[in-house]
Amino acid sequence: MTFSPNYISQFDPPLPPWETLPTMYDLPSDNPEEPGLPDDFHFLQPLLLYLTFQPTNWNPELVYSAADLNLYYTIEHPLWYKRPDWFGVVGVQKLYKGQDLRLSYVTWQEPANPFVIVELLSPGTEDEDLGIKKSQEDKPPSKWEVYEQILRIPYYIVFSRYTNELQAFHLVGGHYEPMNLTQGRILMPELGLSLGLWQGEFRDINRLWLRWFTLEGEIIPAPTEEAVAASERAMIAEQEAREAKQEARDAKQETEQAKRKAEQLAERLRQLGVNPDEIA
Fold first, then answer.
1. I want to staple 144 with a disulfide (CB 3.0 to 4.6 A). Which of 49, 131, 197, 218 is the partner?
2. CA 38 – CA 34 distance, rounded (Å)
3. Residue 91 forms beta bridges with which residues?
4. Tens digits of per-residue pLDDT, 56-109?
5. Architecture of domain 14-220 in CATH?
6. How many CA atoms lie less than 13 Å away from 86 in the CB half-sphere?
């Protein structure tokens, strides 16, 4: 009996979902109706989070973060997405499949969902970001609903630069519960990190910034800050070395002066008929 190719293909195993569902190459990575970033803060603040997101108990090669990147969240509606101001993921390579820079973050094509998301409040998005505005029927769900109910993001952080108010929510039993700050910081022991407010200068702008700390409260420096700190440490070490050399020279001079004075005193005693070696 002869089988046609089509008939034989019926016995082939089905392709896995990630082979048939749209990937980041198939889905749009921008929205012409939402061009650009709203302001400088929405560029600089995520950049600071990006530069300092360094979980202490994860392999750096399996840590990924992004700012203003499309986050596709449901295969039921593959064109629906949210665009967090910043999000961080652990257990994921920096490159898509270890090969390419990401165009978007497509959750059904990735090994893990984001672990923490930060939204920077704007007057036009505040109600959605805080879960006050509910989605309409047959319309995409709100950010709050996506992060809490669909992606189940463990930590959701909201910060307003207008009021300097920092709000944090932790997923507990399938729902977000407000978190209390510990010494002004949000503790995330799973990452070995904490997140808090810091008054300081970043990119030559001094203001209150949201940034990463260790669990103990030590600032995690950005690369430029680390370079400056290393330069300062080198300058201090060089100054200390110069001071140590000067102290050694001074001590040597004092020793030589004391020796000369002792010799002069011994000579004077001999002139007076006194043997200095016999003096107790």
1. 131
2. 9
3. none
4. 999 999 999 999 999 999 999 999 999 999 999 999 999 999 999 999 999 999
5. Alpha-Beta Complex (3.90)
6. 24
